[in-house]
Every structure is written in structure tokens, then in C-alpha cells.
Specification:
alpha+beta; Apoptosis, Tumor Necrosis Factor Receptor Associated Protein 2, Chain A; Potassium Channel Kv1.1, Chain A; 3 domains; 4-stranded antiparallel sheet; 11 strands; flat; BTB domain-containing protein; BTB/POZ_dom
Length: about 325
């Protein structure tokens, strides 16, 4: 079975106040990976399992493409699991390489019985209050795939079937349904034979706050070219990132985040952070690192703080906690 060595699946769960869970209680992430290939899922026990107490346990499970597949093997799959505090910049990372094979008919797993103790959560990650959230994030690389991940799997002998995409502020946009379903699992499910959208050929996005004519046009252009306009503004890049998350367009999400990283500056760091708060990605981490590295930045951006407090109270709280931590370290 062919491999795509550069592929990486990202899984994550956000756990509020892990010490409030009972031992053995577990949470599941969504399943990641391409349809028709090997997929994976993150399982977290916020308060431990078995003999482990007062610690977070976390595991990655591998799911084969066929539910009843009896014999299969995924060699040298690398699983990295990191736990991050609700204030970015502090994290604990553990990495393990594992060969997955089926056991007793159950999906195999790889992980850490004691990923991080509650004591480490307090001292290493700086969780200061009872409402603190912990983000557990796993990266899984070197999974085998049944087909190339980024190739357009299109049957060009199939009849061309256009899709009319309705937007709130302009004429409908018309796009090739074959490309749409090949690029997006979200649209693949929406345009399945049994769904209304498949029979009507209409996708109605008029109630989507992000789906303006300009933004959807930019999204469709990316689906065709795999490139973003280098002259786009900040608000369009932020909107494309949100649309990519909703429509399961990982390539678009990564392209939008790369664009936003290039745009990041002292003047817009608070605005960008308010839009990516609690996503756990590199962009959020860069924002926090910028704030931590320059103690006077918030003072210079004082005129933005009123808007932050009103529009994003969760960010205002974390900025206060960040200042509190700095005071404790000095």
C-alpha cells in the first residue's frame, strides 16, 4: 500500500478543569484522515484510567479503512501528544513511534498512561484558576493511505454537474461539483445522492456570516489553483481560515494560516488572537509569544483593549492571567 510520508493528521481536545472528572471518564476527538484510507482518533482520560490517578492519560487509535479488516499493519507511525495550558507558550510534549496492528478485534492504540500530572499542570503550565482549560493535541504521521491524499480523485468520464452556490450579497456562484466533493469531505457528504443538495444542485450559504461573494469566490479559486491571492487583506484571510475549518478544507486552512503569519504585526496581534483564540495552532502560539516577548506591547495597544474586553471576554481574562504570571516570575 503506498505511503505519503509528508502527511500529518492533527487531533485535539480541549478539557476544562480536568480535576473535576472521575477516573476512567473519557473524551473522544473527531476522527481525522482521508476517506478510504487509514484514519485516527484521540482519546483522553482527563483524570487518568486504571491505576493512574490525578493525571491526564491520552492515546491515539488507528482505524483501518475497512471496518472488518482482520489483517493489516501500520509500521513506524509517529505519534506526538502535547498538552498546552489555556495561556499559550507553555507546553509539555511527548513523542512515541509505534507499529499498529489489530488486537482482539479492537482498534490498537498508542499513547501515555501518565501524559501530565495535575501537579505539572499547576507548576509547569501555570494553570492558576479552577476554570482553566487544557488543550491536548496529537500529531500522527506516516500513516499509509489507500490513495494519494492531495490528488484530485475525479472520474472525468462522469457527466459534468455544476453546483449553484447561493451567497448573501451577490449572484450565485457556479462550480464543478466533481472538484468540490474531491477537495472537501463536508461537501462530499452534503452532495451525496440521498441529500437535497444533490438533487437540486444548489448549496445555500446565504445564512453563513463568512460566506460573502468575495470570500466564497476566493475559496473556490483556491480549490482550483491551490494558491491564495498574495494581495488579500487581513479580514479576507481570517474569513478563509474560518471557512476552511467549517468546510473541512485542510489545505486552505494551512494556506490561510501561512498568510496570516506573514501579516502578523504589533498593530494587529490582538485582533488576530481574538479570531484564533483556543485553536491551539501555530498562529495562536506566535501571537502569545509576541505578547510575552514585549512587555510594553499591550500598553502601546491600549486603545484596542476596550474592544477586546467587550468582544472577546475570554481573551481579556487570559491577558490578565498572562500579566499575573509575569508578576509572579519577577
Amino acid at each position: 500500500m503506498p505511503r505519503v510520508s509528508a502527511s500529518v493528521e492533527e487531533l485535539e481536545l480541549v478539557v476544562a478543569s480536568p480535576w473535576t472528572y472521575a477516573p476512567g471518564e473519557k473524551l473522544y476527538s473527531t476522527i481525522a484522515g482521508p476517506l478510504g484510507g487509514f484514519r485516527c482518533q484521540l482519546t483522553v482520560y482527563p483524570a487518568g484510567k486504571g491505576e493512574v490517578r490525578n493525571a491526564i492519560s491520552a492515546y491515539v487509535r488507528v482505524l483501518p479503512p475497512e471496518k472488518n479488516m482482520q489483517e493489516w499493519e501500520c509500521e513506524n507511525v509517529q505519534c506526538s501528544i502535547r498538552v498546552m495550558s489555556s495561556i499559550m507558550g507553555e507546553e509539555i510534549l511527548k513523542i512515541r513511534t509505534h507499529t499498529f496492528t489489530p488486537r482482539d478485534g479492537r482498534p490498537p492504540k498508542c499513547g501515555f498512561h501518565r501524559l501530565v500530572t495535575f501537579q505539572e499542570l499547576t507548576h509547569a503550565l501555570g494553570l492558576l484558576d479552577g476554570d482553566s482549560k487544557v488543550r491536548v493535541r496529537a500529531s500522527v504521521s506516516n500513516l499509509p493511505f489507500a490513495k494519494p491524499r492531495n490528488g484530485l480523485q475525479i472520474d472525468f468520464s462522469a457527466e459534468l454537474k455544476p453546483v449553484r452556490i447561493l451567497v448573501p450579497d451577490g449572484p450565485p456562484l457556479i462550480f464543478d461539483q466533481r472538484i468540490l466533493v474531491a477537495r472537501s469531505e463536508y461537501f462530499q457528504k452534503m452532495l451525496a445522492a440521498e441529500c437535497k443538495e444533490s438533487s437540486t444542485g444548489i448549496v445555500d450559504l446565504r445564512q453563513d456570516a463568512h460566506a460573502s461573494h468575495q470570500r466564497v469566490s476566493a475559496m473556490l479559486s483556491f480549490l482550483q489553483t491551490k494558491c491564495l491571492d498574495q494581495d488579500m487583506d487581513l479580514e479576507l484571510a481570517l474569513a478563509l481560515q474560518a471557512m476552511a475549518d467549517k468546510f473541512c478544507l485542510r489545505d486552505l486552512r494551512e494556506a490561510a494560516r501561512c498568510t496570516l503569519k506573514d501579516m502578523l504585526s504589533e498593530e494587529n496581534v490582538l485582533h488576530i488572537l481574538s479570531q484564533v483564540l483556543d485553536t491551539g495552532g501555530d498562529l495562536e502560539k506566535l501571537c502569545w509569544q509576541m505578547l510575552q516577548a514585549d512587555g510594553g506591547l499591550l500598553v502601546r495597544q491600549e486603545d484596542q483593549l476596550d474592544a477586546v474586553i467587550q468582544q472577546t471576554p475570554a481573551l481579556a481574562k487570559k491577558l490578565i492571567l498572562l500579566g499575573k504570571r509575569k508578576m509572579q516570575k519577577t
